[in-house]
Structure formats: structure tokens, C-alpha cells
């Protein structure tokens, strides 16, 4: 039995060889030359455009969640009269979430990777109904340029896996929201069903994933949010499994378990 598997191993690995070689080469470059500039550039120009296939497979799930934002009214009486909603997105990357925002949204973003700025504004051109307020290069855990109680809605998708401190980001989200404001999140998490998926998530995270993509596949974001429930007046979250493209199964299986929720200040 064992011999049969080892006989077949080259055949099984063959289609993956180019990907494995690519990952190995990039890994060696990052180890040798440090990640401070190369990693953010790599994320913005190679990795995230490649993951647009993932975005395509989850976008209907995201639409269903984020479309509830349109029922929200601004806490500012003047803006409410004009139908304007102040939205702050953390970690928008190239701006995949533009398509989910209601018309007359007034959007600010806090993005740690400056290499995304160009792609983000290119994408904004396709969504003229959204008024861009500010693109702030900075950390979600320290949004010093965003005043207290100043936004109606905060949004994040696939970001809390990368922040240095989920708790720090939640603290900041709470600070910038107006009372009654809502935080909409859609985040991949450590698998809650299968041990073998958790094994892959740990394996990838500790070998190359964190270094190359700055992402912790095995983070228990749902539990960290639960533990921070006391910050908010209400949290409503559920665990889901998102669909994926079969072709990239061994990678995408790790980002299919997700937590979807709304936290209200
Ligand atoms: C996997 S991408 C997700 C991009 C986009 N939100 C989406 O749904 O596809 C993670 C994004 O979070 C950003 N990011 C990582 N850590 C961050 C932090 N501490 N503060 C703000 N943005 C951060 C990354 O630069 C990247 O744009």
C-alpha cells in the first residue's frame, strides 16, 4: 500500500511542480533580501491579482452580506438628508469591495501597503457613484488620522488574518465608529470542521505563508472577535464555508472556512 503511494508520488506532484518551484524561489529571495519592500510589492503586483479568482468565487456570498449596508442611514443629520453614508474600509487592497457599496457612499480607506494605491484608484474610476474621501497609508491597529466617532460603517474582508493585532484593530474600529455604527466583516479563519484542513493551514502558515503573503491561515479570528464582544453593544456572526475553484484545491481549501458578521457600537 505504502509502496504504491510512493510509486505514484512523482505523478501526483507533477502538476504542482511549477507552483512549488515558484514558491521556493520567492521564499529564498525573501529570506535573503528581507521582506520590507519586496513583500508588499509582490503582494500588490503578483499575489493579489492572482487571487482575483478567489474573489470571483466568494463575491456572491460577500454581496449578500455587504448589501445590508444600503439599509443604514448616516448618524450625521446633514449627510442623512443628502443620503450620504460614511464608510471606512480597512485593508481594501485593489478595491474589490467597491461594487458592494451603495451609491453616495463617502469612502475612506486605511491600507498598510502603498503599492495598492494606484490599482485602487484605477478601480474607483469604474464606480463613479462612490465619493472617495481619503486613502490613508497606515495600520488598522493605529488609525490616528481617523477621528473618534466619525464613520457610520467600517468594512473588512480577508484582512484580520494579516493584521499584527486583531484586538488592536477591533479597538480602533470601535473608536472610529459613531454610536450605533456598524462593523461588517468577512474573514477567513482556522477550519472548524476538519483536522486535515487545520493541519494544512498550520503547515503553510509556519513554513511560507506568513513570510510571503503576510497572512495567518490558522488564525481563530472568530474566537478573538467573540472575546472582544464586550467592546460592542451587539455582535451577530456566523461561520460559513465559501466555494472555491477546484483547480487550486490544496491552497484554496485553506481559505474556505470563514466568519461573517456585524458588530454594532
Ligand atoms: C488578502 S488582502 C485582502 C484585500 C481585500 N480586502 C479583499 O477582500 O480581497 C489583505 C489586505 O489587508 C492589508 N493589510 C494587512 N495588514 C494590514 C493592517 N495592519 N492594516 C491595514 N491593512 C492591512 C493588506 O495590505 C492587503 O491589502
From TrEMBL:
<protein>
    <recommendedName>
        <fullName>Methyltransferase type 11 domain-containing protein</fullName>
    </recommendedName>
</protein>
<dbReference type="InterPro" id="IPR052356">
    <property type="entry name" value="Thiol_S-MT"/>
</dbReference>
<keyword id="KW-1133">Transmembrane helix</keyword>
<dbReference type="Pfam" id="PF08241">
    <property type="entry name" value="Methyltransf_11"/>
</dbReference>
<feature type="domain" description="Methyltransferase type 11">
    <location>
        <begin position="88"/>
        <end position="184"/>
    </location>
</feature>
<dbReference type="GO" id="GO:0008757">
    <property type="term" value="F:S-adenosylmethionine-dependent methyltransferase activity"/>
</dbReference>
<feature type="transmembrane region" description="Helical">
    <location>
        <begin position="16"/>
        <end position="33"/>
    </location>
</feature>
<keyword id="KW-0812">Transmembrane</keyword>
<dbReference type="InterPro" id="IPR029063">
    <property type="entry name" value="SAM-dependent_MTases_sf"/>
</dbReference>
<dbReference type="InterPro" id="IPR013216">
    <property type="entry name" value="Methyltransf_11"/>
</dbReference>
<keyword id="KW-0472">Membrane</keyword>
